[in-house]
Predict the structure.
Amino acid sequence: MGCGLGKPKQQLKKCERGTNLTKSLQSIRAALLIQRWYRQYVARLEIRRRCTWNIFQSIEYAGEQDQIKLYNFFVFLMHHFTPTSSERNLISHIFPENGTCRDGEWEKYFCYKSIEVPDGYTGPHLHFPMTFCGVSKLVEAFKHKQQLHARYVLQLLGETWRLLRILTNINHVSTCHTKEITICGDLHGHLEDLLLIFYKNGLPSSERPYVFNGDFVDRGKNSLELLLILFGFLLVYPNDVHLNRGNHEDHIVNMRYGFTKEVLGKYRMHGKKILQLLQEIFSWMPLATVIDGKILIVHGGISDKTDLHTIARVDRHKYVSALRPSKPNHCAVNSSRTQTIKSNNRNAGGPVAGRRRVCSLSPDSSATAQRCELPRRSLHNLPMSPQLSWTVEEELKRRRRLAGFDQTYGEQQRSESDSDPECEATTETDEHEWKQIVDVLWSDPMPQNGCIPNNVRGGGCYWGPDVTEAVLGRHNLQLLIRSHECKQDGYEFCHNRRVLTIFSASNYYEVGSNRGAYIRIGPDLIPHFSQYQASQTCRDLTLRQSVGWTERSALRALRKQLFVHKSDLISAFQEFDPNNTGMICLRDWASATESVLKLSLPWRVLRPQLVNSVQNGMVDYKQWIRELSITERSLEISDTSILETMYRNHSNLETIFRIIDTDHSGLISFEEFRQTWKLLCSHLKTEISDEAIADLAQSIDFNKDGSIDINEFLEAFRLVDPSAHS
Amino acid sequence: MTEGADDAVVSEDNLLHKKITDAFQVFDTNNNSSVDVKDTGTIMYSLGCFPSQKDIGELKAEVEDNNTGIVFLDKFVPAMTKVLQENKFPPISEDVLLQAFEVLDREQKGYLDSEEMIEYMTKEGDAFTEEEMTEMLSALADNEEKFIYYKDVISELVFEPGM
């Protein structure tokens, strides 16, 4: 406060000093207030960001879990009935039997030589052996959106395959002298991120070694180009470029998450071959990298059982897809049964090669039935009651009937080979090895001690800081670097900085959702981070704007999920509303929604963004469900429950279609369509009448020629949000 | 069940409990009723509190589980309930905030330029980190001249209860 006028000079000075002091105190108080207020504002944004993140992540992981469930279902079917010759095509395509060829046949099958490159081709030409110049040219070509000719693709892949086969399961790298090693995490087809990394950090070379920690494909739209570049550099610098396998280097996962689609779309004629060769390549990818014997790099993580010695020893090639154990060791029996499960020549040298182990399903050998069930059925052994054997038989019959396969199981009842101890022992070792691999590719860290199955993903485990200490200690390591989980800043430490997650695909969920990062490590083994975000526009967004953008996108995705579960939601709400008032309280709304969607989201926090119709703490749920309807469809379908099933199982449907479409023509017959539906409904344990299927097929047979175009079908039932801007 | 009516009748405690649990849940990434102690401040803010850094530090010490860096829900809820019931860290209203800006705006210009902001925010009180400062400037400052027109900024960003 100021002094009055007219005071003598000296007193004025004193007064001024007093004023200055007060002013200082005031400034400090003001500053404190503003700081506190600002931090609160940032915290509210952080909450929103977290919620958004949780939404995306939950939906992502639920999708992964879904995929695994679908796959397990196929495995179950596969092991428990005898398909006719027509069905054989269907089922065998799920597990294509590449392993039966010997190397010479392989070379012939994947031979690129017969493929001519037309004169009109304007893309890059590759020369082998690959040189730095050649790869750089390839990078440039991809930068300019050119496509590599199928001949060169196959040639490049062939060379890669030959190289990968001689690599060991674990890459050992050293930072001798002053070499710094660069480590990148998930890239998921984000070519622009890879190019950004190369721009900032330099291309791979013997002076600039790189480790790429898996998940190169799926989701992004340049998965193939990205892979080809990585393979190109691998061929030129085999001692300085190291690739680890990720859980997406897996043809089953690829069918759902876009890589299969990308390849088939870009290479109509040779796509199938390319995919098959890639399947081989993925199975030959190393599983881990160790730097200076001190830093372990794997894609997912570890479990309490992780043992590098075992991992080093396994025949990694056996595990074509990490989603199921290697093909069963076959014990000799009735030859008429061996159709789809042909003898496994890959296990050359294995003691029980060529013999088939048969599961007995007769009531008096329940224990054996159990042993057969458990290893193959799921990634996490489900508890099964001993009386299950006869129910399994019944269940099988029912499922087959539902799926439209009407064979009997006569030949199933053999028990002789069950008593073969060698057979069993080998399978148990297989089991153990398989678990090591799944754990390394699918696990996630958790803050508490312990090691529990990772039920969110459906594979691998959650491991705690005590397991980190144990495993690192056991192997005399000091740091575990892994990827697998998207992080907002591209990287994150946990477990007392003993575990480091590195993620290199920026804008993973949505433009502006996260930065990507890579690590540089020198002989001092101290990680240095570089972060980036592809695309000019999002870097200029303020935190608030990017949170808003991502949030809107997440909420759209969430509303979609809510919409496809409409009927289940209404049933759940009605349980809380026995008098049919049409209103339920917020607590019940939250609890019912979670019980249907099972995404573990904070519904009450999200509520203001999702529900408008709230009065006095009560939700008008019928109104709300109506508001959620966001589809536009041009077709009239009478049975709305099928519609909902279709929307909800869009990805599952697509996966099954792609499997059925064995010649990759994009068209399937009515009969195949019918089989697909039966399979899906069997998996979902619902029923569908033939009439309903015929009705459906007719309405979507756009050409009226008896065949159904997969893409048109999927497009017709893609959820459309009219408010979304492209 | 018509528990909606019950909610209103049931004690304040229960409502608070739910509010706190909900906010906690957002940070409970592994769904096991625990959060990183570093998030304590953010959770407090999200519940409408305006603690100082010291206040946050004190609560952290109270709820952290034996130096593990973890906070468990069952310890957090009672501590936070008390904070909310006693309204220990009440919100800063718009006018108080405006006054604070006006105090700093010695020349009564109607805005603060970046240098002034940086000077105050990073040298006085609960100083900002460099990162916080950069983010604040980019969020609040007028792009062209880097001035913060505080009157406009405040009305946009003041806390709304019941969020």
